[in-house]
Every structure is written in C-alpha cells, then in structure tokens.
Amino acid sequence: MRTGGRRDGRRWLVLAAGFAGNAVFSATISGLPAAAVPLRAAYGLDTSGLGIAIGAVGLGIALSELPWGLLTDRLGDRRVLLWGLGLTAAVLAWLSLFVSPAGGHRPSLAALATGMALIGLAGGSVNGASGRAVMLWFSDRERGLAMSIRQTALPVGGALGALAVPAVAVEAGFGAAFAVLAVACMAAGAACWWCLRQPPPAAAQAMQDQGAAAAASPLRRWATWRLVLAIGALCVGQIAVLSFLAVFLHDVGRFSIAQTSAAMFLYQAGAATLRVWSGAWTDRHGNRPAFLQRCCLLVAVLFGVLALLAAWAVAVGGQGGPAHALSRWALWGLLVLAGMLASAWHGVAFTELAVQAGLRHVGTALGLGNTLAFSAYFLTPLMVPLALRLGGWPAAWGLAAACALLARPLFGQAGHAGTHKPPRAQKESGHKGR
Q: Which of 53, 69, 414, 426 has its CA 20 to 30 A from that of 63?
C-alpha cells in the first residue's frame, strides 16, 4: 500500500492519535500496579487480594479484545476508539467518586476488582482499533516500525503512569488519581476524534484486492493460533515484572516507593526504546520469527538468573532480603533489565500477526492476539502469589523463565508455516519500487 501527497503525511497524525490512546490506557493499567504498596495499604489488601485487583484489569481486557476487534473490522477504528476511550473515562470517574478510600470509608475488594475489570472491558478497544488504523495508513516497508512505535506507547504511558499515579495517590488519594486518569482518557479521545478519518484510497483498494486471498478468518487458521499462544506465554514475564516489581523491591530489596517508581520508569522507558529499535531492525532484515525466537531465549536466561539471585538473597538475608547494598542494587538492576527485554518484542510480534491476517482481518487478528496477551495479564497476578507460597520469589521468576522457553517453539512453528515469507517479499518489492 502506498499513499501520496497530503494523505501520505496524515499517516503520522493517525499514528500519533493511536499512540495517545494506547499511552493513556497504559498509564492506567501500569500506573496502578506501580502504586501497589499504597494501594495495598489504602484498601487493606493482602498479596492475594492485590493480585486479584490488578489481575481484574487483564480479565476485562481479555474478555473484550476479540469482540472489540470484530467490531473494529465492521465499524472502523475511529468509532471504536471514541467509544472505548469515552467508556474508560466514565469508569474511572465512577471509581474516583464512589470506590476510593476517603474519610474512614474503605471500599471492598469486590468493588475495586469490579471497577478494574470494567476498565479492562472498556479499554480493550484501544489496542486493536489503533493497530488497524496503523496497518491501513502505512506501507509494507514501514509497518514494523510504525506498529512498534504504536506499541511503544504502552511502556511510555506505563512510565508516565509509574511516576504520576503513585505520587498523586500518596499525596491526594486514589480518588484524585482515578480522576486524573479519566481526564487523560478524554483528552486522548479528543485527539482520536480530530486525527482519525477514513483510510486512504490505496488501503481500501488493497482490502478489496485481498478479498479472495484473505477470505478465511484468522480464527480458523492454526498458524495464527500458534502465534497468539506464543504471544500469551511470552507476556508472562513482562506482566510479572509490571505487577510485582514494586512489591518485590519493597519487600525483598527494602527499597522506598521513590526508588521502586524509578525502577518502573526506567523499565518502561528502556522497553519503549527497544520496541522502536526492534521494529526498524526487523523491517530492514525481514526476520521477525527468528528475532522472536531469540527474544524467548534471552528472556528465559535473564529470569533464570534473577531466580538464582533471589534465592541467594533470601538465603543470605532471610525473608527480609539482602542487607548488603551491592546485593540490593543487583536485584534492582537485573529486574529492570529483565522487564525491559521481556517487553521489547511486542511490536514485532503484532506486526507479524497483522501481516499474516491480511488487511481485511487486522482488527480480528489483533483482538485475538491481545486476548491471549491480556489473559496472561489476568492469570499472572494470580499465579505469582501461588508460586510465592510454593517456593518464594525464586519460583515466581522461574515460572517466567519457563513460559518464555515454552513460547520459543511456537514462534518457530508459526514461522515455518509461512509467516517469514511476507517480510522478505515486502522488502524485495520495496527495493524494486525504488
């Protein structure tokens, strides 16, 4: 797909609008786990209750992603984004007014988890709709980079949320924190309303040309299911860090809230940088499946080392963690690095998924991929406390390593099924057109 003139330049506004929507939603779903310590205290939760509250967001997203994706392919990305961001803002406003501790009132875990699940149900619209817009507006030679930039909104928004949400919650309470996030969702909705219009004529023609070739739904292709299962498995490490970084560093490393927030910010900022680099690099080399396989191995190694270091720290310092400064900062640095690399591959994987599906089914394919990704978002905060009871933090980080190893052959099988051919073909056609 090629665009020209003024239409061609508008693709960057479309990307910016999709980026804004994803960033705001990520600030919500990442900022609240970053405030896990004050959240646990304000609502009177134990670690299992905290996992339920945080995981409820992932459950809501997992349940809604595929329906939102099917709706996006039918109604278009603009309508879905506007409805989704508007509903998310409404849920956040309800949480601010009625489900926030104030004046001795402490809302129940059930009320908090319900609100978090509703955030996920409404916000599940953002990922697939914005991804469809990017795929329609960008050419084959730019999609890896563009999708990676869009996916970078998740760690960028998460980094901003990690700085803002805990600070606002500590200083002004969770009512104020939810209100700030609601206003941000409305602002992102306004950006989408202004920037998103009908796709360029070339995209409409491409979808028409693909009618016969892409008639089969991604839901009926086993190669697609292999790829999305791999995405879900590789997400476990990322979600484990996102959900429990603050708790691990506070309880084991004895770090302050400011130091854990800094770790979350650095982790998200590093992940954003790596996502952009990985998208551009795989666009040039046409090697997305091979890149994803290597990511699986590297993530497994890092979490395996983290599990060993956590076991040593507990053995030396007891359940309270290491007292030695070098040991504490080694845990801090290794956890940040593992989180960065566990989050670096998203743009590449979802580009591969969208290319495999074809333009007619981008919303459905991305919805399915995000369903598996956010199923991991729901299940991981429940599995980590169970692993903690069975074997402590070494077992929790060992679980993340094992899931990364399970993902590797699934990415490889998807590649052998034909997903490696489109990037090469795209690259060759791009050279011929120059």
A: 414
DSSP string for residues in 152-177: HHHHHHHHHHHHHHHHHHHHH-HHHH
Amino acid at 393: W
More confident residue, 176 or 258: 176
15 close to 150: Cβ distance less than 8 angstroms: yes
Q: Which of 128, 121, 129, 126 is nearest to 64 (CA)?
A: 121
How far is residue 297 from each of residues 45, 240, 408, measured CA to CA in Å? 36, 17, 7
Q: What local confidence, expressed as pLDDT, does residue 217 receive?
A: 75
pLDDT for residue 431: 43
Q: What are phi and psi of 102, to 5 degrees?
A: -165, 135
**Contact of 376 with 235, CB cutoff 8 Å:** yes
Cα–Cα nearest to 177, from 188, 190, 189, 168? 168
What are φ and ψ of residue 105, in 5° steps? -85, 125
Average pLDDT of 10-24?
A: 89
The pTM of the full predicted model, rounded to 2 decimals, is: 0.73
Buried b (16+ CB within 10 A) or exposed e, 22-51: bbbbbbbbbbbbbbbbbbbebbebebbbbb
- Amino acid identity of residue 35, one-letter, is A
Nearest by Cα to 156 from 355, 365, 16: 16
Mean pLDDT of the chain: 82
Distance CA 80, CA 72 (A): 6
Which run of H or of E encompasses 134? helix 125-137
Q: What is the pLDDT of residues 316-343, one digit of tens each?
A: 765 555 555 667 788 899 999 999 999 8
Give the pLDDT of residue 169: 92
